[in-house]
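Appendix C reproduces, verbatim, an entry submitted by the partner laboratory led by Prof. M.T., so that reviewers can inspect both the input and the predicted structure.
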Amino acid sequence: MSDASTPQTSYVVGRRAVAEAFAAGTSIEKILVAYGIDEATMQWLRSEARKRDIICSTMDRRKFNDLERTLGLAVNDAQGVIALRAAREPLSLDDLLSQAMAHEAEPMIVVLDGITDPHNLGAIARSAQGAGVFGMILPTKFSAPITPTAIKASAGALETLPVAKVARVSETLKYCRANGWRVVGTALPATSEYSDDVYGGPTLIVIGSEGEGMHPSVRALCDVVVQIPMHGAVSSLNASVAAALVMFEARKHRRQRQ
């Protein structure tokens, strides 16, 4: 029976291996627990995950066993516990901001407010890198973890795009505004169209969740809220598509000012 990290370095498999990862301070994105695991282990996992702001999710036993097979393990080798290790250590918010300012005079950072689909996370990261966005800010909760699925959807962008994780998006926006960053949100109703020149200076571009959009407390902190005009029966775009349009539009205005 295996009770150590598998060759797929994005995973930590087994109860003892996960406990050792906690003790070592390993950055973990999410813990998957098979349905029916004993209550004592479940309570311990949830307690440890809560201390570290890690999502702990119960998984259907059949799907959990399928994941074990995908990782080359025998059924029940994982003892009902698999942790997703972060692809790399996230930056602190201050490090991300200072590195962005050192990179260019008017950097852009994309902020994801409740994007829970790993495919959307990956697609946004891919577009961000293509548009010259310096980095990404993710909340520790209510966000898709950076899993192999997200990395694949990003075409590898998540392996190199600087990422910071924060406890609360609203508090982060307050801090950034106080330090000279402009906040541009995407929502309806809006104050401007996405094609308007509203992206001057160091800019945070906030993308809300697929279903609910930006949280009201986040929207209230935006200097500008932009919309993408729709002309057909569909009223909105997928979050990753909207993010791509806004980020490339912001880059276009920067080029025009040079």
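The CA atoms of residues 180 and 202 lie 7 Å apart. Additional entries are available on request from the coordinating office.
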